[in-house]
């Protein structure tokens, strides 16, 4: 960020002729290495860890996380953050489940569309107050975190929806399988491809990175900063709406505390996956690996019978470790840029 | 926070217009603190009309101690936010300290020794935050998000699904007792005393001036010889200590400790500070404002509680208050500029309003049958 960049063409050249790219690659290979070591260690302790069905369980467990973490990543890339994702998921899950209970013949696909519509309105509100109202992102989404969570209570009156109140077709939405792979995994894969395409091959994606790496420069070259920030919050809301429907289907229930604290996991997956909290840096494959690492750790803890109470503490340590490593890398990067300039 | 701020410097709540400050009585009355004072009067009046139990000295005395843990953490949070940083880990630190104390107590350690150990642990937790922020130059937001999970995780590791209870009466006095011969709870007196000290430090000492200087322009502060890193270490460590102190008060007030104690309280703490006119971008804010907003939030919650509104639904009101306390001053500045209203914006605005109307129509339509039909 502090390095002076004359123009973008020059930057492109630098990136390819420089240890920069090598270091960026180390990030992903670093996570892969950690994952391999972890898998090796756990499978020595517990033979049932390295089985196909366990691997499918892990994928099933991280699919929703992937969807939301990618949306969170888009937000973080613009130097913002969305702490309200857990509440948006919970509210969508509750509202869609109420509809499913009242109209058992409601088609699962329509439920997904309904959920995304609900999520888009929630994201719309976030986007409005942050992009156009200029409320700092952390304050705005801390506020909507409690507003949306409160709305779940207001909506449900404290009741919840159980598995027997949901239609079979709705429950199959997440868990039904095609060729032995759950629908949820396909959906997460589809979202990943979409986000990858959006970030790397569209103008919106380029603008998202531009705003994150240098907001002032982005504004000078005429990038509509406010509209872009509005767009990422809207997209994040839609993704959370989708995730909410899938959550209700996957866990066959909607409760007032559905997805409580989930924002932490999404930020953890992004940050562990190499997304910089100060914006502009991060890739889709990195986030997928970050989510996979979180999922494997969660699974491994149960496999080697460590108390689940450790999970939260380990997640926290992972975030801290990831930012410390990131910090060391970026210092190294700046040094190499300085050397190149000389 | 610097890293997350996507907006230009904007008028903060404490200066309601763009004009340079003039020293006149009228301007003095335009300060945000008077706004809070007026809101407190309005809330008091409304609550007194709505519930006969509101203006009752016993009730007010009892309810005031409910907000003191929040208040204690708010004092140090104000310091941190004024420097342009944030500490999301305060409530988790509280949980860790309370659980640590409970765990020691369950294992037969004297309660006062356990309390002292908890104070040390909380301070160390704050020191960890401070070291990562000041020495490694990491953004406070992500560091404290990490320790937010880590500290709360340690609380669960320590106590698991157990609870600690059976604290002696001499200890529970910290949270439940009143000053002899009065209705003033001990915790309120402690808060008032500390608030005064924090206020004096903030407004009357060099250290306080340094905090504003860092919040206004950290680089300039650094170049003018202010020990920025050490000050950050001090305020984060202080925040850890205040969290631990709040942990003692809260454990004493409940008479028991579970690892999920004070979950989500960081939101209330930050809300109280920001609503009090402390600018989240740093450099602006007063201790009087923060204390007034604590009173306002306390009265609002107490009043809503008397009206049987659930705690989670109260969160809607607090969240809206937080957002609109920042949004309204900024909007009032924007409306003056005519360029904002073109035909295009009108169409978009209509679309957005339609989306919200549809949403709420669906919201209330879809919940009605289930709640009525059982």
From TrEMBL, chain B:
Membrane topology label: Multi-pass membrane protein
GO molecular function: transmembrane transporter activity
The entry's keywords: Cell inner membrane, Cell membrane, Membrane, Transmembrane, Transmembrane helix, Transport
InterPro entries in the cross-refs: ABC_transp_permease
GO CC term (a single one): plasma membrane
Subcellular location: Cell membrane
Domain of life: Bacteria
Transmembrane spans: 34-55, 67-86, 109-128, 140-159, 179-202, 233-255, 261-280, 287-307, 313-333, 345-365
Pfam families in alphabetical order: BPD_transp_2
Full protein name: Autoinducer 2 import system permease protein LsrD
């Amino acid at each position: 960020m502090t390095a002076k960049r004359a123009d973008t063409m020059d930057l492109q050249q630098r990136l390819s002729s420089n240890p920069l790219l090598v270091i960026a690659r180390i990030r992903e290979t670093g996570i892969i290495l950690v994952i391999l070591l972890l898998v090796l260690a756990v499978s020595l302790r517990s033979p049932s860890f390295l089985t196909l069905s366990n691997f499918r369980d892990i994928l099933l467990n991280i699919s929703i996380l992937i969807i939301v973490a990618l949306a969170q990543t888009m937000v973080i890339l613009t130097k913002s953050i969305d702490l309200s994702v857990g509440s948006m998921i919970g509210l969508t899950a509750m509202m869609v489940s109420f509809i499913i209970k009242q109209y058992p013949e409601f088609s699962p696909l329509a439920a997904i569309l309904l959920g995304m519509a609900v999520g888009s309105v929630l994201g719309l509100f976030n986007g409005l107050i942050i992009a156009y109202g200029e409320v700092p992102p952390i304050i705005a989404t801390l506020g909507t975190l409690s507003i949306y969570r409160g709305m779940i209570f207001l909506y449900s009156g404290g009741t919840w929806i159980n598995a027997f109140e949901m239609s079979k077709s709705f429950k199959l939405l997440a868990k039904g399988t095609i060729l032995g792979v759950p629908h949820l995994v396909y959906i997460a894969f589809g979202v990943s491809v979409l986000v990858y395409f959006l970030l790397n091959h569209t103008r919106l994606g380029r603008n998202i990175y531009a705003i994150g790496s240098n907001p002032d420069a982005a504004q000078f070259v005429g990038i509509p900063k406010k509209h872009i920030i509005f767009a990422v919050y809207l997209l994040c809301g839609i993704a959370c709406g989708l995730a909410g429907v899938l959550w209700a289907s996957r866990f066959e229930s909607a409760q007032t505390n559905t997805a409580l604290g989930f924002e932490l996991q999404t930020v953890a997956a992004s940050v562990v996956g190499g997304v910089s909290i100060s914006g502009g840096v991060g890739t889709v494959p990195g986030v997928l690996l970050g989510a996979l690492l979180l999922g494997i750790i969660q699974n491994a803890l149960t496999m080697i019978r460590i108390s689940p109470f450790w999970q939260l503490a380990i997640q926290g340590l992972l975030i801290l470790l990831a930012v410390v490593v990131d910090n060391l890398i970026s210092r190294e990067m700046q040094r190499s840029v300085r050397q190149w300039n000389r | 926070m610097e890293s997350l701020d996507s907006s230009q410097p904007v008028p903060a709540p404490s200066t309601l217009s763009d004009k340079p400050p003039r020293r006149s009585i009228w301007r003095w009355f335009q300060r945000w603190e008077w706004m809070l004072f007026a809101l407190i009067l309005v809330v008091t009046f409304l609550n007194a009309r709505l519930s006969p139990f509101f203006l009752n000295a016993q009730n007010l005395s009892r309810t005031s101690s409910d907000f003191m843990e929040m208040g204690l953490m708010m004092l140090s949070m104000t310091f941190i936010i004024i420097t342009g940083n944030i500490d999301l880990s305060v409530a988790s630190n509280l949980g860790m300290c309370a659980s640590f104390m409970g765990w020691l107590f369950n294992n037969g350690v004297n309660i006062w020794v356990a309390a002292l150990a908890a104070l040390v642990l909380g301070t160390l937790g704050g020191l960890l935050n401070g070291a990562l922020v000041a020495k490694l130059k990491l953004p406070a937001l992500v560091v404290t998000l990490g320790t937010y999970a880590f500290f709360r995780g340690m609380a669960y590791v320590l106590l698991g699904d157990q609870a600690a209870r059976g604290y002696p009466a001499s200890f529970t006095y910290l949270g439940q007792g009143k000053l002899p011969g009065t209705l003033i709870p001990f915790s309120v007196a402690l808060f008032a005393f500390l608030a005064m000290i924090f206020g004096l430090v903030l407004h009357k000492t060099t250290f306080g001036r340094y905090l504003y200087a860092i919040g206004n322009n950290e680089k300039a502060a650094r170049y003018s010889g202010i020990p920025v890193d050490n000050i950050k270490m001090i305020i984060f460590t202080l925040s850890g200590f205040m969290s631990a102190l709040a942990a003692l008060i809260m454990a004493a007030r409940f008479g028991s400790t579970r690892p999920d104690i004070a979950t989500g309280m960081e939101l209330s703490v930050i809300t109280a500070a920001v609503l009090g006119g402390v600018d989240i971008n740093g450099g602006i804010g007063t201790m009087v404002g923060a204390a007034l907003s604590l009173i306002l939030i306390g009265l609002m919650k107490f009043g809503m509680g008397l009206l049987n509104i659930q705690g989670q639904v109260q969160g809607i009101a607090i969240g809206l208050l937080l957002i609109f306390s920042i949004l309204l001053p900024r909007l009032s500045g924007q409306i003056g500029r005519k360029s904002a209203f073109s035909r295009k914006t009108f169409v978009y605005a209509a679309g957005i309003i339609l989306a919200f109307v549809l949403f709420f129509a669906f919201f209330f339509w879809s919940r009605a049958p289930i709640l009525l039909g059982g």
